[in-house]
Amino acid sequence: MSEPATPPETAAENAAGSGPPLATMFITAYNQEDHVAAAIEGAFAQTYRPLEIVLSDDASADRTFAIMQAKAAGYAGPHALVLNRNPVNLGIVPHVEKVMTLASGQLIVENAGDDVSVPHRVARLVEAWLASGRRAKAIHSARRRMDAAGGLHEVFDDARVLASQTPLEVIRDHGTLVGASLAWDRDVWDVFGPQSPIAIFDDFPTAFRAALIGEIAYIDEPLLNYRTGGVSTRPTERPGWNHLYGFRIKDLRWHRSFWRRYLADMETVAPPEAGECRRLCREKIARADFLIGLAETPRWKLPLALPGNLARSLRTRDPAYLQETLKYLAGPLYMARLDAKTRRRAAETGARAARAA
């Protein structure tokens, strides 16, 4: 279900091509009843006009959508509202794709259901977009860490991705944008179409698509209070298990989906150095297939894989095929060693911090 509201008061000028461009800020949420009200209040407080706000719930089992409904019903501000609830849970990227069918703006601003935008966030993003001559197809900013209680802490500077501007650099360097602070020109979606079914997060594919058709811009100012945690948070417990079977393998599956998505997008827009881009994607996919395959191989079958992987290392002059196989053969011993090494490093870091204090 979706419920459009009255359009912005400047919609006529916008349609005629005069006045500032229409922007859309969307809040996507799933089971975030504790935080979604603050996210919505941050959207309502935006100073930019004309602005459309999409509140979209991904079939939450808690009160998330009821809170969205109540906030929308009580809103009397200048922004247009669209209220949506998916009948079934779609997941991150399909949910964003649903929102894109509801959004009318030329610049799309993402906001998770547990993060809070500062009031001038959209205004600064639009300013940077227009200053680039609209060549910036993706824009992101610094973020301020926010804890579960809403307390504000240090600023995350994400300028490092500016080193990854070309499609080849994005592939080679795992270049991405932090989706939490991301905005994009709707050309990123209109040119290429949906990112799913193989992409699980929209930040990596959006960065690559922006590099294919334009530029990536960064604003060195914290425009978002970013609540830490979530599905991509790296675990700190059981580092040995997570290296062999846990988060590293999950991370490889995610990245494999991104590289497959890049190959598909390059069929729509071929970049400079297209041959090298495709070769590198296929190489990364093959490496991910190998490591995921090792993690899924029963330990009793691993000795059978050893001769072939030794030969592969010799043939490619890449010792990783042999080394990774030995890690899995060693199994419990390797995990225990990595756990002990991690604990020792943590103790040393704690001791240095205590001495400094």
Structure, explained:
The chain is an alpha/beta fold and 357 residues long. It folds into two domains: 2-227, Spore Coat Polysaccharide Biosynthesis Protein SpsA, Chain A; 239-337, no CATH class. 46% of the residues lie in helices and 18% in strands. It has 14 helices and ten strands. The protein has helices at residues 11-15, 36-44, 64-73, 92-102, 121-131, 167-172, 187-190, 203-213, 239-244, 247-265, 274-296, 302-316, 320-330, 332-356; strands at residues 2-4, 23-29, 51-57, 80-85, 107-112, 116-117, 136-146, 152-156, 183-185, 215-227. Strands 1, 2, 3, 4, 5, 6, 7, 8, 9 and 10 form a ten-stranded mixed β-sheet that branches. Strand 7 (136-146) and strand 8 form a beta hairpin. Helix 11 runs parallel beside helix 13 (320-330). It is globular, with a radius of gyration of 23 Å. The model is unreliable at 3-16 (pLDDT under 50).
What's the CATH architecture name of the largest domain?
Alpha-Beta Complex
Low-confidence stretches: 3-16
Sheet with the most strands, sense and barrel status: 10 strands, mixed
Helicity range? 40-55%
Q: Would you state the CATH class of the largest domain?
A: Alpha Beta
The proportion of strand residues reads: 15-25%
Quantity of strands, as a count: 10
Round the mean pLDDT to the nearest integer and report it: 90
* SSE class: alpha/beta
Number of domains: 2
How do the SSEs run, as a string of H and E? Answer: EHEHEHEHEEHEEHEHHEHHHHHH
Q: How far apart lie the N and C ends?
A: 56 Å
Say what the CATH topology of the largest domain is. Answer: Spore Coat Polysaccharide Biosynthesis Protein SpsA, Chain A
Sum up the overall morphology in one term: globular
CA radius of gyration is: 23 Å
Helical segment count: 14
